[in-house]
């Protein structure tokens, strides 16, 4: 499987841009009512969220609801209702809130984040800099810049404080991500993928809280791993396997000490840094093909990646 | 990459953007294949949009003072005048030159200043240039909009993020109550009625609960604010409130919002300025449409078109990471019919304002509003975190 599956239709002429605009307008107007602000008087925080069921289940970022049991849910027109914080996975920066008040609420359906690749068009919303009664949550349009780390992806839809927890949509108006963090560059706006939320759905809805907010993707408990110790670089291109963690994906696929990893799904692996960079873009559960050099012979091995955290857990 | 919630924490991150050593690590985990795909897509997009820029690019000029490019300008009226951004143009030392591309340059001089919108009208000396045709269309949310360069290429692209609104707090209607944040019922419970406001004149009292504005039920303070947004000062509204004597209707004449202290705002703005190229004057516009486009500050003042190539307005300011403000065509047409002030007078006022601001920034406020204390403490702790973060970034930069 190539790293890049470019799903976005190409823009060849003005007509393509006009078609793109029509979609962005439809999405912006349709999903606006479901994009709420979440305020906590207890923690003084102000973030965003998106309603995804008619009964008022809100998806947001874990750091938005951190320390809060209840939040004020504010609709773009200023209507206020109460929300109960359910659970959260801090490592993925995802959480849920349930509207307590009875009612039928505007909502947006969920899409899929795993197929997203660089160049896919997206629309991001959020209550930038907090709820502002004088405006609707600002619409931002852009494209996926980069996949990963792990369940996260990066877009050039520029975010700022208050946008956290707000939604990113594909051009069909389906939620594909949740606004999480930014870097200094205008290109560096990070979102948690919706698929990672679906995996943890039952636990979060049941009120479980776990994980840790992690700024270093390589130290994130959700980081996908092979389960090897990397040896010192030798004169040969590739990463020597110095040790194999027992019961790890590497062990299950028969990797041996002394093997040299030279490629991953066709991407050349020159050194340990490159291996980490390619791995961090994948997700636990992904099946990858390693190109090995064993006893000076080339050999392909398939490995199913595991969560870093799961690697050292007692079984 | 840090999770963000409070804007100040964010500023730490944007501040770092000013340092070019970070440029390579813009998106730390981007793969060469991804970079290639993006570059190809961006290039194709920027080529494909060129047909909509052609007409308006003829009315787009660069304004120079010596070798310094100050701003863009938009040729208006019969082609003998240019509209541009006042706070940038006022930095000019010596003669101003308008450059329309293709070796078409003109000497220009100041005519009048529209201070509220931070715009200046310039007169072209010599042959007129091509004036813009203002569009009558009203932009919709999510519309694609673009700002041309004088050479006909794309200067900046974005969408309509927020429809036109008034950014001046003093221009919005003011009721004159403080509310109880812990009140959990329907409506808004009043804790305080401000003197000499519409609320006081109408007879609203502490502990009254506002239930309705006109026919609209009010769930809480934010909905009340929302209901009053867009209501002009001087309008009358009807309020339904629960009082000691039961539910009562109040007829309220709304006044102007008094000028609020901008102490924290100014502090924050100072830090924003360190975040890289944003406009110095970027707030308080009376007609501002918001877009996510990213023109640089010296590209402000030029026309903005929709995908039909029609000029829907001009850029007013690059406000920050997420916002660029655009003044819509209809408001501009109206503005151009009104009289501005003499540039000499505007310049004097500007200097006076700067002096006042300096004094304000350096002297502590004598009087803090109730409730501000907590916020001040929060800002202080945020500042502390900002400093710590900067220090750790610095030490990492310096290395072992």
Structure write-up:
The complex is a heterodimer of chains A (315) and B (400). Chain A contains seven helices and 21 strands. Chain A has helices at residues 14-31, 62-65, 194-199, 201-205, 249-252, 272-279, 308-311; strands at 35-40, 45-51, 57-60, 70-74, 80-89, 94-99, 121-124, 140-147, 152-155, 167-169, 175-182, 189-193, 209-210, 224-225, 228-230, 239-244, 260-264, 267-268, 287-294, 297-304, 306-307. In chain A, strands 1-2-3-6-5-4 form a six-stranded antiparallel beta barrel. In chain A, strands 7-8-9-12-11-10 form a six-stranded antiparallel beta barrel. In chain A, a hairpin with a 4-residue loop joins strand 8 (140-147) and strand 9. Chain B folds into four domains: 7-52, no CATH class; 54-165 and 276-360, Thrombin, subunit H, CATH 2.40.10.120; 173-256, Pdz3 Domain (Roll), CATH 2.30.42.10; 365-398.
- Number of individual domains of chain B: 4
Share of residues in helices of chain B? 25-40%
CATH class of the largest domain in chain B: Mainly Beta
Estimate the mean pLDDT confidence of chain B.
82
Q: What is the N-to-C succession of helices and strands of chain A?
A: HEEEHEEEEEEEEEHHEEEEHEEHEEEH
């Amino acid at each position: 499987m190539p790293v890049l599956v470019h799903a976005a239709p190409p823009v060849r002429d003005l007509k393509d841009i006009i078609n793109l605009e029509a979609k962005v307008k439809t999405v912006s107007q349709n999903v606006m009512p479901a994009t709420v602000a979440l305020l906590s008087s207890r923690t003084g925080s102000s973030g965003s969220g998106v309603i995804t069921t008619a009964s008022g289940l809100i998806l947001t970022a874990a750091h938005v609801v951190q320390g809060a049991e209840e939040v004020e849910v504010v609709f773009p027109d200023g209507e206020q209702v109460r929300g109960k914080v359910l659970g959260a996975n801090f490592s993925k920066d995802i959480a849920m809130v349930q509207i307590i008040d009875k009612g039928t609420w505007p909502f947006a359906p969920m899409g899929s984040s795993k197929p997203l690749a660089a160049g896919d068009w997206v629309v991001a919303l959020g209550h930038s800099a907090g709820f502002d009664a004088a405006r609707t949550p600002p619409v931002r349009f852009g494209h996926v810049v980069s996949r990963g780390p792990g369940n996260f992806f990066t877009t050039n839809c520029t975010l700022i404080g208050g946008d956290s927890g707000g939604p990113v949509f594909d051009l069909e108006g389906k939620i594909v991500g949740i606004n999480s963090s930014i870097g200094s560059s205008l290109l560096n706006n990070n979102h948690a993928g919706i698929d990672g939320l679906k995996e943890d759905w039952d636990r979060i809805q049941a009120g479980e809280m776990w994980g840790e907010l992690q700024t270093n993707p390589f130290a994130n408990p959700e980081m996908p791993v092979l389960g090897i110790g990397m040896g010192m670089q030798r004169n040969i291109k590739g990463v020597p396997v110095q040790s194999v963690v027992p019961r790890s994906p590497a062990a299950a696929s028969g990797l041996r000490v002394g093997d040299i990893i030279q490629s991953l799904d066709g991407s050349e692996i020159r050194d340990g840094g490159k291996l980490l960079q390619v791995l961090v873009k994948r997700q636990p559960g992904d099946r990858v093909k390693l190109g090995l050099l064993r006893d000076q012979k080339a050999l392909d091995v398939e490995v199913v990646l595991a969560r870093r955290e799961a690697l050292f857990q007692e079984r | 990459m840090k999770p963000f919630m409070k804007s100040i924490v964010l500023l730490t991150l944007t501040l770092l953007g000013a340092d070019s050593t970070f440029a390579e690590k813009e998106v730390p985990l981007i793969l060469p294949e991804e970079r290639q795909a993006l570059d190809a897509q961006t290039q194709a997009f920027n080529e494909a949009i060129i047909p909509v820029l052609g007409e308006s690019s003829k009315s787009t000029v660069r304004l120079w003072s010596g070798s310094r490019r100050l701003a863009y300008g938009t040729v208006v009226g019969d082609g003998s005048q240019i509209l541009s951004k006042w706070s940038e143009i006022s930095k000019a030392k010596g003669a101003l030159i308008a450059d329309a591309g293709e070796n078409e340059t003109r000497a220009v001089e100041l005519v009048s200043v529209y201070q509220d919108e931070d715009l200046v009208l310039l007169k072209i000396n010599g042959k007129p240039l091509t004036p813009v045709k203002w569009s009558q269309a009203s932009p919709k949310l999510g519309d694609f909009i673009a700002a041309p360069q004088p050479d006909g290429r794309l200067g900046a692209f974005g969408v309509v993020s927020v429809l036109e609104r008034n950014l001046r707090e003093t221009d919005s209607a003011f009721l004159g109550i403080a509310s109880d944040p812990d009140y959990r019922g329907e409506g808004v419970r009043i804790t305080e009625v401000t003197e000499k406001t519409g609320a006081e004149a109408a007879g609203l009292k502490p502990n009254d609960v506002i239930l309705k504005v006109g026919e609209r039920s009010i769930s809480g303070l934010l909905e009340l604010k929302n209901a009053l947004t867009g209501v002009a000062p001087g309008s009358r509204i009807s309020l339904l409130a629960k009082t000691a004597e039961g539910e009562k209707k109040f007829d309220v004449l709304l006044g102007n919002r008094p000028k609020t202290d901008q102490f924290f705002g100014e502090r924050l703005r100072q830090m924003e300025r360190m975040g890289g190229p944003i406009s110095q004057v970027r707030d308080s516009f009376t007609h501002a449409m918001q877009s996510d486009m990213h023109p640089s500050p010296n590209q402000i003042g030029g026309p903005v078109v929709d995908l039909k190539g029609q000029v829907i307005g001009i850029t007013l300011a690059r406000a920050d990471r997420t916002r660029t403000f655009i003044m819509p065509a209809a408001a501009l047409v109206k503005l151009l019919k009104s009289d501005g002030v003499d540039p000499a007078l505007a310049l004097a006022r500007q200097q006076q304002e700067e002096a006042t601001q300096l004094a304000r920034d350096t002297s502590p406020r004598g009087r803090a509003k109730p409730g501000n204390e907590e916020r001040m403490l929060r800002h202080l702790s945020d500042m502390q975190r900002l400093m710590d973060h900067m220090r750790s970034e610095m030490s990492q930069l310096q290395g072992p």
